[in-house]
Every structure is written in structure tokens, then in C-alpha cells.
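writing this on my phone so excuse typos. first protein, seq and then structure
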Amino acid sequence: MELKSYARYFSKPEKNDPELGALKLLPGVWKAKGTGWNMIALPFATAPSPLNYRLLLNQYDEELQFDLVDKAVANRGIAFGGTPVQSDQFVVTLDYVQKITQVAAEDFPVSNKAGAPGIGIHHEPGLWLLMTNEIIDGLDIARLSTIPHGDSVLALGKSGSSAGASTIPGVNGLPVGVGSDLNGNPYLAPYKKFHDNPFKGTVNVAAFPGFDPTQPEKLLVLANQGVDIANTTTLTVDTTTPTGGITNIPFVVKQANAASMKSTFWIQELKEKDVNGDPVLRLQYLQVVMLDFFPRRDGLPGPIRWPHVSINTLTKDVVASEKVYK
């Protein structure tokens, strides 16, 4: 690792600095109150019932802060082809910290372990990278993260931008390897429960559809209705790309191995203006982590793959973000 001055590290960025490329709108503080939704299947002893898992749904608050680390982290290299020439790569690097606090939770079968409102349920420090040159396989962004359960993640992908809103893709939240018949397969009883009666958390609005595990993206789509979005920057990363992956501590590997992660972030510039006359900024994400545990029940080899889905819609806090900028 090349030693360098720390004077440039965690320097304050300029607002909308074009040198940050696709990451230029991220520095600052993003917040959401009660708009985060999470679904995860967990090993849970239910003997004599054959389920041995519970499905947990959470509603949550979130704060997500991005700071500039460096606009030109240098990876040294040489290009060979005749006379060797220096061929260095320069990487824009942002530090981030994600903090999530529970608003409400419900599980089935009921475990009495879902937790009370106000507890911290997730803390994630990490880095976002933008490769500015020497890009391989079109992969120009990366997300590195560590999770206190004992997981270390490297996901790579591509950035893009478009006018207007992006289409939120559909997601199948049902486990892979057990069939998909909610009515005829008693093993899917927890999913059927929340499909028939979607989880609404603390939302007490008659028209609110709630979180349905068979359509976990639905509340993101709902959050965009009636919102005039001028431009969207899309960041999509996946641990199944070459050199990506997740490394877990032994207990996690044995009990509920986090095998892969794919996440998409949509940074939205609204036509609505903030107090400074700049576009209101929103950040939506859809993340799916596949957890592997228990043998498949459809006769095929390998473990069941359980989608752990998290979604949210955050807004940039203009006042708090001003402290991050120069």
C-alpha cells in the first residue's frame, strides 16, 4: 500500500463537484423517517413444526452520511506492449456510514425477539469508489462494506444517468428451492401470512398497501407517484461480478451464509427546489442479499436461498449537509 499524506483524506468536497463523477451528489447527510422496510428469514427452532425459520419484517428510520476521502487514490500499474509505460488508475473514494433504527417489527412464527421501537438494528461503515480510468469490463464503481454480524462485502458494477425517473424492477421475495405455491405449500406459511395481510408498521392510512414479501419493490414505486423527477443517477453493484464477493465469519457460514448481494441506488434530482434554490435530492435503494441455509425441498442439490430485501426512500438534509461541504 502506497503511503501518502493524510492531509487530503476526509477533506470537505465542493457541492456537486464534477470531479466526483457519478458520485457527486452523494456527499452530505441523507435521512428517512419510517420509510425503510426490511424483510429477512432467520433460522428459528419451531419443533415440532417443520418450519424452523421465522420471517421478520421491519419498518425503520435511517441516516446515511457520505464524506469525501480522496479524489485521486492512485493504483499503480504498468502497460506492457513494446516499451513498458506507467499506467496508473485513479479512484474517487467516498466514506459512508449507515445507521438504521427500528420503528416497528413483526415476525411469524412469533418469536418475541422482533425487538422494540427505537433500537438500533443496523450499522454499516464502508466506501464507494468511482474508477475514473483504466476501467475493466465496464465496471466503473464499487461498494465496500462491513457489517457487525461478521460480513465483509465487495460489490462492483456500473453507473449511469437518465432524464426523469428510472423504472423500479420487480423482485421475487420468495425463497428459492421450495416452490412458489403460497396456498398449497404449508412451508411458505410465513410468506402467505404477510402476503394476505401486508405489514404496515406504524402507517395508519387506509390506502397504504403495506409491505408484501411477494412484491417487496412495491413501496418504492408508490413513493415515486406524484413526484416530478428531473434526472436520475443510477448506481448498481453486485457481488457476483468478477473479483466481487462476501466473506463471512464461520458461524455465519454455517448457520445462514450471506452468499451474494445486489443493490441499486437511484439518486433523484427533483424539479422541486430546496431552500437554497437547488433541486431537492432523494435517494432510493433496493438491496437483495441472498442467505443460504437448509437443504432445498424441490429435489435439486444445494441450500435454499432466502432473499433478504431492504428498501428505502431518503431525502438529503440540506442543513446537515452544509457542514460536509467546503
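second protein below, same order as before
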Amino acid sequence: MKYHNHMKIFIVGGGEIGKTLAVQLSHDGYELTVIDKEENVVNSMSNTVDAICFQGNGASYTTLTDVGANEADIFIAVTDSDELNILSCMTAHLLGAKHTIARIREVDYARQNRFYKNKMGLSIIINPEMATAMEVYRLLRFPLATRVEVFARGRAELVEMTVRQNSPLGGKSLIEINKSMGINLLICAVVREGEAFVPKGDTILQYGDILYMTGAAEEFRKSFRKIGLPVKPLQSVMIAGGSRISYYLTEALIKQGAKVTLIEKRQDLAEEISALAPEAAVMCDDALTYFDSMSDSDIANTDAFIALTDNDEYNLIAAMYAESQGINKVVSRISAKSRLNVLPEESKICTISREDVAADRILGYSRSLLNAEDNDAVESLYRLMDGKIEFIEFNINENDKNLNIPLKDLKLKRNILLGSIIRDYRTIIPRGDDKLLPGDTALVATINRQIARLEDIFAE
């Protein structure tokens, strides 16, 4: 389904993040223009994306005037240069672009986001490295989770996990899990053999199923403990690669009391990270070589290993080696998804893509702007399984339809589920007698559907 294709979106920068954005925004039916300095990038985008592709300087007043950036509903600058992105957005804003989004990676710039928003007209700043680090940080809280997202300002969570062999969830129906096992979580979607569906009460979970669960943040630990799933707090974490992602992640882990060992084989970068994060143990070494120097006791006391170098192949090899050593939680950064084929089917390694994280944040913000003229608003958007599954967070006010009506009296469209309702700092797992009220936040799960308004989830 395509919608609101009258909206004009401009993207400056045809790199991995720009390409990921362009493919999805084009698929969603927006009127899209892509600008990049490199001719080969422009030619490649022209052949793969339904968009106007223009070779030029995305920060140039002349270029932006020529392509009509003054008519942009959303102007996005995601080149590798922070300065170019800021200047592009500022120029587009002065020309008349309604909303501007800049990718900013430098730590000093990222900390000045209020200045850029208030004084230079930026609508939102995306720091892909920080966003990726925070996603890894959330992953580390649950050893079995393969993805963790937060919504409603941290009051509720979305957790992705696989039903492994010997899992207490395998062979049980959702009714048994929710009642007999006494957990206060909702399984919103299941992926089985590559196909996603909204489960029913009598759906029996099978080994290998991928589950998407929602609930109050504090309920996950309680519920996982009840059913015997591990929730051991992290005490010792090893990180391979001295990237910006590594720095942000190290900072977050140290704040929560974990011991961090960071391994970077380039001496200048190792020294730089050591100066920025003095509480971490920074080793100038190769991660695989460092593993060989570790004692069995050191490895046994390592709760998690995260591979964050710029080399996909190295990350996967290091991650597989860490998993073979018995480390419970292993995460690998990866850019090219085709390389995931090297992972054994039974592997528990989590993978994360900086490009996908950044694109998801921008797509969520873009979707929220669709409702600028309406009353309900998309607060956030989470795309999973290459966009087949979406979790959308709506803010609800008194003008929304279907309020104050018991959910049992409303009919949802096929492949849509109301996952959670957040009200007055409480997270409610929706039951038949619950109602949507003004001021609520609602989390909606959709499969192979795109919705722009809350009213779109209900059947006539």
C-alpha cells in the first residue's frame, strides 16, 4: 500500500545509510530526490531506486535551488561529513524546507544538538553510532534477546527472541504461557520458517520460532525469571574495535557498573579511546590473538563479547570464536546482510547494522510527520524482518476515533495487534474490557501492512 505520495523528500548522500533510506522511502511511495557528488553513486541509485537522482554538492545554494529543495517536506543529509550535513540542512531550511534531518557523528557536535535545533533550524539530529551503541546496550540486558527496543520513554519494551531447543516456551500455547506460567507479557508476532503472523491464544510455539514480545520494562525480568530464562546482570564485557560505537557503548556500560575490556590493534586509536574512557581497560592487540592469551577463568567470567570493527568478516569470525568459547552473549556488527549466511543455523549470535538503526530512526520520524495535519501522531516506528513487521507507537488525544469503547467491541484488521497501552506511567497488556483513552500511548504491531493513523488499525 502506498500513501501520501505527494510528500517530497530529499536525501543528500548516497552511502549505505542514504541507500537504505532511499529504497524504503521509494517503496513507501514518497516523491524522492537523491543528491550525491559521485557520478557512480548517482548512476547506481538511478538503476535501483524510483527517485530523481542528481549529481552535485548537496550543501550548495545553487544545487538545492536547481533541484527544488525549497519545496521539501523532509530534507535529510546523511553524508560522511558532519559539516556538510549541517550546512546542507541549514541551506535547505533557509530556502523553505519544512523539516530537516542531519546525520551528526562527532561527539562534540552531537552534544550541541539543542543549539543546532534552536538556532539553525534542524528538526532532528541522528547520531547512528550512538543509536547503535544504545541498541547493543539494551541487547546486553537479556542474554536470549536478539533485539530490544524501548518506547513510551522507557516505560515499555519490545523484545525479540528465538525459541531455542529446551526452552520452556517450546510446545506451549499462548494461553498456557500467559496463565499457567503467570507472565504479564504479550507475544504480538511470531515468525516461523520465514513467515510472520499474529498468534492467537491457541497458537502453540515451536522450537525455532522468532517471538516479538511487549510489556512493561520491569515485567521482562520478572517474567523471564518465572519461566527459567536467564537474566544475569552483566559484570564483564569485551569489545573488539575502537570505533565511535565502541566509545559510546563503553561509556554506557561503565555507568551501569560493568567492567569493560576494549581491544583495538591500531595504537593511535587505542590511545585515543583510552584517553576518552579511562575507566576501561584498553588493549592494543588483535581480538583473536587476545583471546588466545586469556585464561579459562577469564573467559568464563566474560559475560558478553561485542565485535564492532569496520570489517564484517572479521566481526563474524571473532563472534563465532567467542561463541565457541562459551561466552553467553555475543553481538556482531554487520553492514552487508548477505554475509549472515556464514553463521551456523544454531548460532545465537546477535547481529546489528548501524545503517539499519539510523534508517529506522529517520523512517520513524518521517512517518510521524504524515500526521502533522491530523490529531494522532506517530511517536516512534520499529521496522523488523526487512520491514515485514512494524511496531508503531501512537500518542492518542480526545479527537481520535474509537475511544472509550471496550476492545472486545472493536474489530482489528487482519495482521494487526494492539500490543500495549501506556497510561499514567502504567503499561497495560490489552484485554477485552480495556479501552483506549485520551492521553494514552498505544503500541501497534502490523504484519505486511503500513498504517499512518491509529484509526487505520480498525475494520469498518
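The radius of gyration is 23 Å. thats all i got for now
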